[in-house]
Amino acid sequence: MSRRSAAEAPSTPDPNRVRDLRAALLNHYDRTARDLPWRGESDPYRIWVSEVMLQQTRVDTVLRYYEAWLKRFPDLDSLAEAEVDDVLMVWEGLGYYRRARNLHAGAQVVRETFDGDVPSDYARLRELPGLGEYAAGAVASIAFGEAVPAVDGNVRRVFARLFDVAEPSARWLRETGAVLVDPVRPGDWNQALMDLGSTICSPRAPRCDACPVEEWCAARTVGTQHERPARKVRKAAPTAFFATPVVVRADGRALLVRRPDSGLLAGMWSFPTVEVDGDGRVSDSDVGGGTGGSGGTGGSGESGRAGGSWRASGGPPRGGGARPSEEQLVRVSAEAAGALLALLGEQEVALPVRVLPPVRHKFSHLDATYFPVVFAAAGERWVGAAGRVGDGRVEGGHVEDGEGGRVEDGHVEGGGGEASGQVAQGVPTTDVGLRTSEATTESGPVTRPDVRWVDLSDPGVALPVAQQKIARSAADSDPAGAVDGAGPVRASAADGSPRGGAIQMTIPMENC
Ligand code: SF4
Hints:
This protein has 512 residues and is an alpha+beta fold. It folds into 2 domains: 15-227, Endonuclease III, domain 1; 239-381 and 420-490, Alpha-Beta Complex (Nucleoside Triphosphate Pyrophosphohydrolase). It has 15 helices and 18 strands. The chain has helices spanning 15-32, 44-54, 59-72, 76-81, 84-91, 98-113, 122-125, 133-144, 153-162, 170-180, 186-199, 218-222, 326-343, 465-476, 479-482; strands spanning 239-249, 253-258, 269-270, 274-276, 350-355, 359-362, 367-377, 387-390, 393-396, 398-399, 402-403, 406-408, 411-413, 436-441, 444-449, 451-455, 490-493, 503-506. Strands 1, 4, 5, 6 and 7 form a 5-stranded mixed sheet that branches. Strands 3-2-16 form a 3-stranded antiparallel sheet, with no helix packed on it. It has a two-stranded antiparallel sheet with strand order 8-9. The protein is globular. It binds iron/sulfur cluster. The site of iron/sulfur cluster (SF4) has 14 residues, from helix 9 and helix 12. Iron/sulfur cluster binds next to helix 9 and helix 12.
C-alpha cells in the first residue's frame, strides 16, 4: 500500500496483507464496538430503518428518533399501512424528509412485491425506493450476511487514507470495498469501518496513535493523513428570499399549505412562501415549485385553474447578495395572503399586523431566508391585499362591491363600499402552487387546495425545521394587539376598524 498522487490511478489493495488488516480491525471492533440499539439486531426492517436514519445524520441525533420510530412503527406492516402524514410527523426534525417518504414507500413495495419479506440480497434491495449502494450494502451485509461493501463518507475517508489516495473515484471505492470486505463477518466488518471513521479516523484530527490499522496505513506512513482525501472546494449555496405570509384567524389558527409533490420540501406542510429577488420582484427562478396547484377566483375554493407555483427551490442566480426591503416583502406577502384567502372563498380581511424576525435555513443546495409577516384574517371582506404583482406593485384586488386597494409607497389605499361583499373576481393573479386533492361533492368531482388552519403551538402536522421556527415566533407574537399599533407594521382601517372601510398600511421606513 504505497503513496499515490491524485494523478495516478490507484490500484486495489494487496490481498496478501488484507487478511491481517481485517483481523486487526475486527478484533478492535469486538473490544470497542459502541452499544447502539440497532447493534445485534437481526430484524432486517429495523436495520433498514437505522441505516436510512444514519445517512447524513449523526448517531447521537438518530438515537433520539430510532426508538420513537419503532414505538410508532414497530414492524414493516405498521409502516406500510400508515398515512404519510403520520410518517412525516415521527420524522419531524430529522431533516431530509425524502428518506422518510422512501422508507414508507419501500415498506409498501415490500408488501406488494416481495410478499412482506424484506429482500435478502443486495440486488433486490436496490429495487426499493431510496436504497442506494451504501444502504443496500449495509442491510444486505448486516441483516443477511452477504459479503458486499457499504461505503459511506466515513469509509471513503478511511480508504483514502489507508491507500493514500487524494481523490478516490466511485469505481475504485467500490472495487476496494469488495476486496476488503470480510467474507465471514461482512456486517461486522462494514460497521467496524464506519466506527473507525467516526471515532478515530476523523476528518480533521485522526487519532493515528490509537488506530488499530495504523500499521497498514499508507497516508500515516508518509504523513499525508490530514490531506486525504483532498477537500472539495464547495461553492457557496445560492441565496433565496421568501416572503412568508402567516395568516392567522380570529380563533388563533394559522393557514398552512401543502407544498407540491416536487421541489423544495416536496409534499410538506408549510406556511405559504413566495420567492422574491433582491429588487422585491417575485422571482423568476422557479425550479422546484411544481405545477398542479389550484388557483381560482374565489367562491367555494373547490374549483380552480391548474398550474402555477409558489416560487420554491432552485439554482443560481436566485436572490444574489441583495436583500429585498421589508416594504417589498410585506407587499408580496400581502398579495399572497389575499390571493390565498380568495382561493379559499374566505370573505375576510387580511391585514398585515406584524413583521416577525427573519428565519434563515441552510439547505444543502440553498441558503434560504424566510421573512414571515403575520396577517389577521378576520372580517367579512378583503381589502387591498389582493391583486397582481407587477413592477414591485400590488395592484387592485377586486371586491364585489368595491375596489380593493393598491399598495404603493408603503400604503395600502382604497377599498370602499359596504363590508358585506364577496371576494369574487380578479384574484388571485399570483400563481399559487400548492397541492390539490380530488373530492366528490353533491355537484360532482371537485379539486380542493390542500390547506389547513392549524393551532400554531401544536400544528398537528409535520413541519420542516424553519417552518417550526416561524410557527413558534408567530405563536409568541400577539397579532391582535399589533393591529392597534404595536409592532413595526401598523394596519388600521380609516374608520378605526380593522374591518371594512379604507385600509391604510404604514410601514416605517427605518424598518425597510
Ligand atoms: S492510521 Fe490514522 S489516518 Fe490511517 S486509518 Fe488510522 S486513524 Fe486513519
